[in-house]
Amino acid sequence: MKNRILVLILSIATLYACSSDSLITDEANLTNQQVDLRSNPIEKAVTRPFKIKAEGDFSLFPGDGVTCPAIVLNAPGEGTATHLGFITMFEEWCFNGEGNNLGTRTLTLTAANGDELHGTHSYILWTSPTSFEEVLVFDGGTGRFENATGEFNESVVITFDTEFSGTFTMSGDGTLTY
After folding, report:
1. Which of 133, 172, 171 lies closest to 152 in space, CA to CA?
2. What residue spans define the domains of the chain?
3. CA distances (Å), 71 to each of 95, 115, 154, in order?
4. Which UniProt keywords apply (predicted)?
5. What is the pLDDT of residues 78-100, one digit of tens each?
6. What is the four-CA torsion angle of 43, 45, 50, 53, rounded to 10 degrees?
7. pLDDT higher than threshold 70 for residue 37
């Protein structure tokens, strides 16, 4: 009789130790690990071809003498770019008035979902009084372009409507790594 009671107690203890509570805890730990892995993916950046076509308006106006000493150019536009689709763009250029020094030039391309791709211009070559070629270097952004790098060559044609404003068309290609 004592052996039966001992076997019964051991059986109950064994069943209790293997209860669904411990399985639930194990599943919760596994689920938490899976969520942690999904929230911290290890992704390898891939270099892809990049193309852009855009058009818009530009305006030139005097700098404020402090943040931009000489001339400011603002150029909003829209178009299409690979990996972004339809884009809106904004280029700002602060020419510092020092000869061939380009000053500060930035470009922001915004995709329809709000992701931004940022770049700066590193080179410009005027091919006529109303057209030029330049190199733009990508240096990050937001969303999927947070750590993006790359560069593209673009050709730009401008048409002056007044002495200080006009329109532009641009197209270019290069690479984008993200």
Report:
1. 172
2. 2-39, 47-177
3. 5, 29, 22
4. Signal
5. 999 999 999 999 999 998 777 66
6. 60
7. no
Question: What tokens were used for 134?
Answer: 């330049």
How long, in residues, is the chain? 178
**For residues 136 and 121, is the Cβ–Cβ distance under 8 A?**
yes
Q: What is the pLDDT at residue 32?
A: 43
In this prediction, residues 141-162 reach a mean pLDDT of: 96
Contact 116, 142 (CB under 8 A): yes
Q: Which fold has domain 47-177?
A: Porin (2.40.160)
Two structure tokens written together for 5: 């009671």
pLDDT in tens, 123-143: 888 899 999 999 999 999 999
Q: How far is CA 4 from CA 1, 10, 16, 29, 42, in A?
A: 5, 10, 18, 37, 56
E strand spans, the chain: 47-62, 71-81, 85-95, 104-111, 116-128, 131-141, 149-162, 165-177
What is the phi/psi pair of residue 31, to 5°?
-60, -45
